[in-house]
Amino acid sequence: MSEIVNINGNLFPPEKAVISVFDHGLLFGDSVYEVLSTRKGRFYTVREHLERLFNSAKGINLVVPYGFEELEGEIKRTAAAAKNEDTYIRIIITRGVGDLNIDPSSCLKPQLIIFARKAIEYPEEFYSRGIELIVSTVRRNIPEALSPGLKTGNYLNNVLAIAEAVREGAHDGLMLSHDGFISECTTSNFFFVSDGTIKTPSLEVGILQGVTRRNILIVAEENGVPYEEGRYLPEDLALAEEAFVSSTTKNILPVTRISGRPVGDGHPGEITRRMMKLFELKLDELVGL
Ligand code: PDD
Q1: CA gap 45, 26 in Å, rounded
Q2: Which of 71, 109, 195, 220 is 20 to 30 A from 82 in CA distance terms?
Q3: CATH number of the domain that residue 164 is part of
Q4: Do 171 and 86 sit in the same domain of this protein?
Q5: What's the total number of domains in the chain?
Q6: Rounded to whole angstroms, what are the CA distances from 75 to 12, 20, 39, 48, 148?
């Protein structure tokens, strides 16, 4: 079990993994990233994550100097060197080293950084009892400033939102869009159930198009579980019977309290538990088991 960091194709142990302080990724958050995971030792949805990485890069006019196959090869090589049963991968492409000012035109070579370490294991009781959210006072970005659909190194409002949630004794912050609609949590998408229907903010609200979210909606469709995407207000949560969040590292995690109030009866709901089971089966299908 170990951790390996790949910098521009060279593998390092964590204590030897260093980059220049003149990298605009560090100086200005001028970078893009993705988080992937393996399941039962196998990679899945690599293409979806790399597609989103290239899309994020395009969104900030960053030309990725690698092809798809090359990046996939580097991810797998780094994971193999780290030798964990299941691997957490964080792949970052920064603007690269440049002058000490925000103009990116001095940055001639983007840097590739890939972290491979043991996959995150959230405590079992998060899944059996659910987690608590607060509705954050910190909002997601207005798309015309920086699209929440891009996974960039510019996550400072999300950093502030999770810090606020932790300060208030919750696990995560549910962030609203600039115009007050429910958007997503700091590193996961959000769903709630009312009238027996799964409801999740639509992409137009200004959220990251989660790979897990997309597969959850496919699972709902395949199994005849009613769902809808739309624009919802925090007041709509008063009627929520259930809620859950999703991400690559968490899969489906029930939410049982929001801003100090129980969701439904305060336990993971029936539809949530059904979706958790169905999603596990979908993951096995995705890894080819
Ligand atoms: N976060 N929304 C935001 C803002 C995210 O950062 C993420 C992913 C998601 C879920 O996307 P996906 O299902 O593709 O993982 C939604 C990763 C896990 C992270 O930053 O660690």
Answers
A1: 28
A2: 109
A3: 3.20.10.10
A4: no
A5: 2
A6: 14, 22, 15, 14, 25
Decide whether any atom of ligand 1 lies within 6 Å of the 189 Cβ. yes
In the predicted structure, residue 188 carries a pLDDT above the cut 90:
yes
On whether both 226 and 142 belong to a single domain, the answer is: yes
48, 83, 118 - which closes a domain: 118
pLDDT at 231: 98
Ligand 1 pocket check for 35: Cβ under 6 Å: yes
Q: Are residues 142 and 156 in the same domain?
A: yes
Q: Could you tell me if the CB of 200 is within 6 A of ligand 1?
A: no
* pLDDT single digits (tens) 45-54: 999 999 999 9
Does the pLDDT at position 218 exceed 80? yes
Asked which of 78, 93, 118 is the last residue of a domain, the reply is 118
140 within 8 A of 157, measured Cβ to Cβ: yes
158 C-alpha vs ligand 1 centroid, how far in Å? 11
Asked if 148 and 208 count as a contact pair (C-beta separation under 8 A), the reply is yes
